[in-house]
Amino acid sequence: MYFFAFVFSLLFFLCSCKEDNIIGKTEIKWSKKKSTDFNKELVIEEQIDINLFKEQHKDWDLIITGSGLQYYIYEHGVVDTLYSPLPGDIAEIQYVVSLLDGTECYRVTGEDYYEFVVDNSNIESGVQEAIKKMTIGDRAKLIIPTHLAHGLVGDMNKIPPLNTVVIDIYLIGIQI
């Protein structure tokens, strides 16, 4: 008796899981206009979040570039040079990467530093743009919007998709 009840229950369960029986299944028709509208909404929401962040950091004298990068050089270097990194140079930096909510994602400080080839590496395009505005010894705060940071997918590790990043960066040196 229990065996038949079990078999009947199993058959009922398997039959009810057929895709045809899903209630309310709808097909989404995506268009260029829907994609454009969706992207506009994302940009507006991100700008609201950035503005709220900036309200909490009114002392940052931010410069906004045409790409949307916002940066503030809060400490100028004492190194006797006005040389800014150029494409192909190797920049030596220390940094702290955070999200707008203050969540720290990455940190390279102290005795450690990170090297990358300017305009020829996989580092965020917002950092690439900012580093060329700095000279050796400068410290800067960067607000890098999604499209200049990790975009729709995040970094597949600590930075979630569609997140603005805030970077405190220190240009230690340049190898020409």
Per-chain topology:
Layout: H1 2-16, H2 32-56, E1 63-64, E2 70-75, E3 90-99, E4 104-108, E5 114-117, H3 125-131, E6 139-144, E7 165-175
Return the string of H and E elements: HHEEEEEHEE
Radius of gyration: 24 Å
Helix content: 25-40%
CATH T-level fold name of the domain at 61-176: Chitinase A, domain 3
Q: Identify the CATH architecture of the domain at 61-176.
A: Roll
Spans of at least 5 consecutive residues whose pLDDT stays below 50 are none
- According to DSSP, the number of beta strands is 7
Looking at the structure, what is the overall shape?
A: elongated
Structural class computed from helices and strand pairing: alpha+beta
CATH class of the domain at 61-176: Alpha Beta
Strand content: 25-35%
Short description:
The chain is built from 3 helices and 7 strands; from the N terminus they run H-H-E-E-E-E-E-H-E-E.
Describe the fold and architecture.
By secondary structure, this protein is of the alpha+beta class. The chain has a domain at 61-176: Chitinase A, domain 3 (Roll), CATH 3.10.50.40. It is built from 3 helices and 7 strands. The protein has helices spanning 2-16, 32-56, 125-131, and strands at residues 63-64, 70-75, 90-99, 104-108, 114-117, 139-144, 165-175. The longest helix has 25 residues, at 32-56. The N and C termini lie far apart (84 Å).
